[in-house]
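Exam prep: given the inputs below (a chain plus iron/sulfur cluster), describe the expected output before reading on.
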Amino acid sequence: MTEAKSEKLVNDILKLKEERKAIVLAHNYQIGEVQDIAEFVGDSLGLSQQAAKTDAEVIVFCGVHFMAETAKILSPNKTVLMPDLNAGCAMANMITPRQLKEMKKKHPEAVVVTYVNTTAEIKAESDYCCTSANAVKVVQSIPQEKEILFIPDKYLGDFASRQANRKMILWEGYCPTHRRILAEDILKKKAQYPKAEVLVHPECTPDVIAMADKVLSTSGICRYAKESNSGEFIIGTEIGILHRLQKENPQKKFYPASNLADCSNMKLNNLEKILWSLEDMLYPVEVPPDIARRAKRSIDRMLEIV
Ligand code: CIZ
Ligand code: SF4
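Solution:
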């Protein structure tokens, strides 16, 4: 895109944001241009809480579908728009309500702890929601004698299970983007940048996690990078986050663990689509009230713990 075209797009978006009483929220994994035009950049829960707090009437949610659903659940009276409805999450699609119901039948006494990366329907069938930042705390809060069914991310589940020293039944889901980060990538980067701290997301595989200095959620990575005395970091999560890290810490250096950790769904949003979204109020995300109510209960129960 030429600079003039990009500037015009940005100006058109700014004008329409005002007219529509809209704000743009961008996930940490969005492309730089989208992050730069957003009122808030953050993780899915943080953004959904921002959406609930704001006076804006319209929320343009730049992330993936389950995130916009979460925002809608916390802000049922606001219009939540997704610039591209095709932005789904491969991990969230790895468990269906029917599969979860079958699993619950097999383990009728189990407490269901569900990663936020799931559809509203799955959250509605769950006891507790959790994020990558609080999964360990949520698991620890459940009485020792209770069986726990952790869905859908087996790697986050495995990490939380080891941290909390708690056996759990894990669903076989995972994030294809984070699974592309290999232990040998970390080894190579460590050899290249021996002074760098290795920060990885708990959606990574256990061998990658074992090589990390810190295992953190996206908001945790952003916070830690600011506070740490290190000047260099190897980042094991989706590469969109490097834009924010570099912008907030211009004097520090950030290296992606792997350039293959690029989520194609996250990258579906761009400035043109945000403009079209505001022009035509596309595409509204709706969650049926009964599902929203039950899904919200699992989110509220998480918030009571953390
Ligand atoms: O909840 C989120 O935003 C995701 C997907 C990751 C994270 O660690 O923040
Ligand atoms: Fe889903 Fe992974 Fe993409 Fe996040 S990075 S939206 S978990 S597929």
